[in-house]
Amino acid sequence: MFFHIVLERNMQLHPRYFGRNLRDNLVSKLMKDVEGTCSGRHGFVVAVTGIENIGKGLIRDGTGFVTFPVKYQCVVFRPFKGEILEAVVTMVNKMGFFAEAGPVQIFVSNHLIPDDMEFQSGDMPNYTTSDGSVKIQKDSEVRLKIIGTRVDATEIVCLYILCLLLHFVECCLVKLHQRYAKFCFKKFKLIIGKQLDIAFVSLQISSLLQMPLKRAC
């Protein structure tokens, strides 16, 4: 899901940034331009981790701008079908629940929640099993399985089913990704429950919940 790869990009730099700090200015512009962006092939660029090479600049006629070919290392987020993702619930309503996993914003439709879980309104809305043993509410930790993806020009759309419910805890996953909190992830949204055969999904959920953890995930 997270990969460390090498990418290339042609960077244009204004003449006012030339001088002894040219390299630093070029790297700063690179990080500003690519971090937080999404591509269909590589996924979501989380952070630039290093510069492998900066080629010779080419002056653009009539503008004074210089184009530099830059080869850089970066961490990307690319979900694939069949992968398991752990997330922390941020909001619950009768339509389903919202969750976050680092840079990912997730919505799970109520159609994809097991039939034995009912929505409970109140000060702390939640989904609870009939025997009360499992509860999904704000700050609950859930485990999701990707059952399909669709790549658009500026976003990656994923379909998830609930693989296994865990006890609710504080937002530990969010803390793991505090380093990347400064980046903008609004364009990266996971949309759940569209264009799915609900009966098929319910069957998949039932089967997964009956399997041991190692087999299900």
UniProtKB/TrEMBL annotation:
InterPro entries: NA-bd_OB-fold, RNA_pol_Rpb7-like_N_sf, Rpb7-like, Rpb7-like_N, S1_domain
GO-annotated biological processes: positive regulation of nuclear-transcribed mRNA poly(A) tail shortening; positive regulation of translational initiation; transcription initiation at RNA polymerase II promoter
Localization terms from the record: Nucleus
Membrane-spanning residues: none
GO terms for cellular component: P-body; RNA polymerase II, core complex
Keywords: DNA-directed RNA polymerase, Nucleus, Transcription
Boundaries of every RNA polymerase Rpb7-like N-terminal domain copy: 8-64
Single GO molecular function: single-stranded RNA binding
Major localization listed first in the record, in broad terms: nucleus
S1 motif domain mapped to chain residues: 79-157
Annotated Pfam families: S1 (PF00575), SHS2_Rpb7-N (PF03876)
UniProt family annotation: Belongs to the eukaryotic RPB7/RPC8 RNA polymerase subunit family.
Purpose of the protein: DNA-dependent RNA polymerase which catalyzes the transcription of DNA into RNA using the four ribonucleoside triphosphates as substrates.
Name of the molecule in the record: DNA-directed RNA polymerase subunit
Organism from which the protein derives: Glycine soja
